């Protein structure tokens, strides 16, 4: 099970698949939309005056607007990310059926299969529990980041208020250094666990299909078990797409029409090959 073979099988699965762009249409369009929004925001920022007086006046005039926009934007992003997770998973499940030669044609409707009555509740609980576990594993990194930001804020405030760096800034400096170290160390278990849970949703699909589903936690546990010894391979597989994602970046998302289906299909092939290699049947 080499990553080169996995990528090749992904390309073969997509080569003559009718409807593949419709299947991944929403993830592709959302990717392009995000580039457009980011470009628009950057353009508006650049249109502001460059003098301190102009910047201050612009900020004072729009503080309340910026606050409302920030929180509404965060809520919108949260809802969008949840919807995207469901839709992308529907596409992944469909590609798993294609790879297993159960489907020879796909459509936009297939990407919405996770919203069906049989799937929605199970998918939602699985997403929720998996992300709760990851949140708990991220706490050390979050605390480290908080310490780093607090230290930097104290140093900046001390300098602005006194016009110099006082002895208290040394303590804040140690807060920054300690926070940075804790944050980096905290990222290690978080990354490891994220790869341990990486195939949870695929296992959920197989268990639902064959009637062996018991709980979301059982799917997560099964993922942890199957990924032992294969986490780094999945990391290398994903890392091998870095050049493709750079292409998406420089084309303002347009290359996503090729890269997004290819990337997600490769993840699907990885899972299918892993279960065959380990001779696992759910």
TrEMBL record:
<keyword id="KW-0812">Transmembrane</keyword>
<feature type="transmembrane region" description="Helical">
    <location>
        <begin position="171"/>
        <end position="192"/>
    </location>
</feature>
<dbReference type="InterPro" id="IPR010380">
    <property type="entry name" value="DUF975"/>
</dbReference>
<dbReference type="Pfam" id="PF06161">
    <property type="entry name" value="DUF975"/>
</dbReference>
<keyword id="KW-0472">Membrane</keyword>
<feature type="transmembrane region" description="Helical">
    <location>
        <begin position="234"/>
        <end position="260"/>
    </location>
</feature>
<feature type="transmembrane region" description="Helical">
    <location>
        <begin position="21"/>
        <end position="41"/>
    </location>
</feature>
<keyword id="KW-1133">Transmembrane helix</keyword>
<protein>
    <submittedName>
        <fullName>Membrane protein</fullName>
    </submittedName>
</protein>
<feature type="transmembrane region" description="Helical">
    <location>
        <begin position="132"/>
        <end position="159"/>
    </location>
</feature>
<feature type="transmembrane region" description="Helical">
    <location>
        <begin position="75"/>
        <end position="96"/>
    </location>
</feature>
